[in-house]
Amino acid sequence: xxxxxxxxxxxxxxxxxxxxxxxxxxxxxxxxxxxxxxxxxxxxxxxxxxxxxxxxxxxxxxxxxxxxxxxxxxxxxxxxxxxxxxxxxxxxxxxxxxxxxxxxxxxxxxxxxxxxxxxxxxxxxxxxxxxxxxxxxxxxxxxxxxxxxxxxxxxxxxxxxxxxxxxxxxxxxxxxxxxxxxxxxxxxxxxxxxxxxxxxxx
Length: 202
Description:
By secondary structure, the protein is mostly helical. It has 10 helices and 3 strands, in the order H-H-E-E-E-H-H-H-H-H-H-H-H. Strands 1-3-2 form a 3-stranded mixed beta sheet.
């Protein structure tokens, strides 16, 4: 796909409105992965999605649609400022660090900084959890339904896309991808067994 402009325009139209506001599609033909994105950080509003369009075209269009929608769903699900105990600790830690530095209390500043770091890591882990990964798949399916797919079609295409990505990138599926596939197969009616709640919360 020497000129990906038409595909980029199509994908932008496919995105939900929130995705169009924050997610930017970037062509990078030299990357080994089909599609990549960085973990969103609170000080950057833009959330780039980097695609190797030469590899991208090796997937059928429905699979490409689901991969894009799933990526956007995951990016938009990361909420740093959502009120939680962890974000409250981050805020308290930042304020505490500033106060302690202003008072030239290095021990207090280090303690407050450590609190901020630990709370930030907790937020990062929660956004990388199995539960969040499965929720991103489910949100992508709901967006696809609004774009004309049935829930079953969307789930089946996303399962196939997970397999296609591993094949194109010449790698095995990760453990998280296997869990996602199992959950999607249950949604698609391809398997009577979903992901147990105990594993979703890991």
